[in-house]
User: Fold this.
Amino acid sequence: MRLKSPFLSFILFLALLPTMGCLFRTRPVEDQYSKIPLKESTQQGLIDTINQQAEAIRTLKATVDIDSSAGGIKKGHVTDYKEIRGYVLAKKPDALHLIGLMPFVRTTAFDMVSDGQDFKLWIPPKNKFVTGENRAATPNPDQPMESIRPQNIYEALLIRRIDPNTEIAVLENGYETLHDGKGHRVLQEDYELTVIKKSGDGWVLERKIIFGRTDLKPHRQFIYSEDGTVATDAKYAEYKDYGGFSFPSRIEVFRPQEEYDITLNMLRVEINIPLKDEQFVLEQPAGAQVVHLERPQSSLVVPLGK
Assistant:
């Protein structure tokens, strides 16, 4: 069978390409693969890692330095807040108490507690006492930090177990982009555990937990809202041993929709020490301006560390 003329012309063009150097150029590959030895695991092995840690840690008490920023594309700029000293108390199943101190003078900048459903926030510099449900939204592009909710920090701080009765976890072999000492991009394989949960008659994307292949520990966690949007992007770094528990010494919590970022740098961590219920109680101070998020408000200003 005789080749048709257009097809024959194409074959001749391909054959001549190596001699036509002016039409193309060869360039080096910028991305390189990591040569660091990587550890192996299985889907069930990673699930067990999450569940064993979640079940083992019942309480956490930490002294932290807090770095924070607010703003982004929506606001048009980013404001970084000074590092402030803070204290974190967490108790299963959902209780959190977070205190931040003003720089230098170390008076209280904010004090917030949550039982998982409702929260209270005391802001002495503004003489404001805020109460409401954790899910209550207070969108204000001029003050992104007003949207901070203790429950968002709790979910990032203590990764929840994967419940086989209501959740399904699927393993993906992915990779993360790192940089070497010269700033060159290095690709390193990772494990990505995507968790979907039962919702009504269907299933929804709930979380994605990314494990480093050098230590098989969670390095990042994406938590999604009901519509599949990333609600929280949490990063975990520099794992250390705290009383027999391997726990990250730096946790960054980024909320892209509200455009705020909080990093907890662990100075001291105590795990499974007794914590009393009264340590998660915050009383309304006398004379404070009370803000109920269930009611319309003109403006709620909660600038962390300012």
